[in-house]
């Protein structure tokens, strides 16, 4: 029996309860589990992890499951095995052999813990620790919302430890005001926290290794001070990545703007008016995070797949004469793999 031809894939969200979460993801059209007291902090949109971090409340594998088309019900790791070159093109898998990015939405009703992910030096000495470089695109936020990105110049590990004991960590963090449309890149080793009242789309390398430094007075969650101090880059976020702010959208024009380009991924914000069409026949897979509007993917010989705000899609490469049609003015993040040129806009 022949395998079905590939097509744009959508996955069942994996929801994560968090003490800092809320219900804001309902604004994306999500039917969240539980009731108003169930605090959902994360929606894992595309995930392929052999094991998640026990410190994050996990410890188990997480593999996204397809919800549309002939491959509905299959896990992403199964599809990668069955369609390695057809799905991945020339993109290399993660070091563990899985999908090389983890895609999320985050809802910070409260401040996330001040934390750090393993630095390259730490990861090289600890095989169970994995690098996690990430980018946050601000979807929505309350007035006055901030993120914390890096430690102030001149702060030493000793002074930082003392600030933890004195409940004064915030005074040493670099606080950055944010607004919708901002995008921030945080390489591994950056001490950081997402501030309260912020909703973000997150693109990251596929690691769930997190070392908590400070939890804003919350109790009951483990801190990892020794590991964190060893990993933190003291000073502003150190990055060779290209990072920029997106210009204002012009509703009657199609536009693309590069937000982030790093060793692991590229992010473009794309805006298109009603009736816009563009090819989806790329040489490598792309990920579409639909921020607003609607449309459909068309692949000759297959059914059309409608896309809408709040959805995340994995578009395989080499879809022949496949195209995307925008039916109602739409904006999306288009995620590519590794350092790439900005996407082509017809």
Which keywords apply here?
single chain, 346 residues, mainly beta, Jelly Rolls, 2 domains, 9-stranded antiparallel beta sheet, 6-stranded antiparallel beta sheet, 10% helix, 36% strand, metal-binding, zinc, RmlC_Cupin_sf
Description:
The chain has 346 residues and is mostly beta strands. The protein folds into 2 domains: 9-241, Jelly Rolls, CATH 2.60.120.10; 255-337, Sandwich (Jelly Rolls), CATH 2.60.120.10. It has 5 helices and 22 strands. The strands form 5 sheets. Strands 1, 15, 16, 17, 18, 19, 20, 21 and 22 form a 9-stranded antiparallel beta sheet that branches. The chain has a 6-stranded antiparallel beta sheet with strand order 2-3-6-13-8-11, with no helix packed on it. A 3-stranded antiparallel beta sheet has the order 10-9-12, with no helix packed on it. β16 and β17 form a beta hairpin. The longest helix is centred in the middle third of the chain and has 9 residues, at 157-165. InterPro entries: Carb_Metab_Reg_Kinase/Isom, Man6P_isomerase_Firm_short, PMI_typeI_cat, RmlC-like_jellyroll, RmlC_Cupin_sf. Residues 10-137 form the Phosphomannose isomerase type I catalytic domain.
